[in-house]
Amino acid sequence: MPTGVRPNPLVFAFPSDPRLASHAAVAPQEIAKEAFLLPSKAAPAVRRVVLEYFNRAGIDLKPEHEVHNVVHAISMITSTRAVMLLPAYTKGYLPESITTRPVQGEVPTLDLVLAYHKANKSPILKLLLSRVGKLAGASA
Question: Is residue 48 part of a domain?
């Protein structure tokens, strides 16, 4: 049974590049000509949010590569010097060689959810569910 936790904004992630890093926030037009990485079909929710966001912004994405997970994203951003939209919660996993900036204007978000089987009577799950609102920064 899915339980909504909270929306999480996406941020631009890129190699520590002075041109993009000098901005407080980055507009999608700023990266239109940059090498871009797209989440793969293994991450359908993030992929859909990214594609819909650029479509609304009127930008025809021509991704250079697809990325399967956060570890793959770190490797590809670093090795190809490309830009990617990642959920903000991933910032804690990124090395210092990767910079993030918020999106300027309309900010795409990804709903974070907690899914569990309703028949699961685990005391640990019960405790987690009782505290999920507090953990998410919302009232329970």
Answer: yes
